[in-house]
Amino acid sequence: MKLIDLTHTIVDGLPAYPGDKETKLINTRQLETDGYSNHRLKIDMHSGTHIDSPMHLTDAKEYICEYPPESFIGEGCIIDMRNRPVIKLEKEFEAIIKKGCILLLYTGLNHKFGTEEYFNNHPVVDMEFAEFMVERKIKILGMDTPSPDKPPFTVHRLLLKNKIFILENLTNMESLLEVEKFEVIALPLKIKADSSILRVVAKLL
User: Fold this and answer.
1) Which positions of the chain have pLDDT values less than 50?
2) Which candidate, 201, 193, 200, 199, places its Cα nearest to that of 44?
3) Rounded to two decimals, what is the model's pTM?
4) Taking each helix axis from N to C terminus, what angle separates 127-136 and 154-161, rounded to the nearest 10 degrees?
5) Residue 144 burial (CB count, 10 A)
6) Number of Cα atoms under 13 Å in the Cβ half of residue 153
7) 24 neighbors 67 (Cβ within 8 angstroms)
8) What contacts 70, CB < 8 A, 6 or more positions away?
9) Rounded distance, CA 134 to CA 124, Å?
10) What does the alpha-carbon distance between residue 190 and residue 193 come to, in Å, rounded to a whole number?
11) Domains of the chain by range and CATH?
12) For 72-127, how does the pLDDT look when each residue is reduced to its tens digit (9 = 90+)?
């Protein structure tokens, strides 16, 4: 089995979305002085690599822990969308994007993670393309950006309203560009929250 990690490492001071609180990861106990090691984490659920559920921007009542695990596992497909400020629907996508898949859009912006450009000048998904995702009933949209859109977050709301989860701040997606077939495993924490930090891997098939 070969797994490709698509997750940013959680560290103290992990870059946060503008307006969110900074991540605090503290080594609270040391083996040499306390006899054991321990760490304490204080983190916003939208920091680093994370997944949005419908509760994030719609009136859905289900916490992310209430969705079954199979909601977060599925056949993956990836499309190279580098150098496109607006990501639009193209004719060839109809053959690539299968019903119920987990769609990954690679922009290459992950290499600028944490910079002002990353958070403020990231590519956005065109509404027509978002509507196509709804039509195809994809499970999850994943991107190596902080968001598929910008305020007022109409793409976010459309996808979440149709129970399409959104993976944000992915990394290492270039490792999948030449892979013919893979499965995405994006299990959130079993947490009573609107969204969750998580570890995302692609399993090569």
Assistant:
1) none
2) 193
3) 0.97
4) 10
5) 29
6) 13
7) no
8) none
9) 17
10) 9
11) 48-204 (3.50.30.50)
12) 999 999 999 999 999 999 999 999 999 999 999 999 999 999 999 999 999 999 99
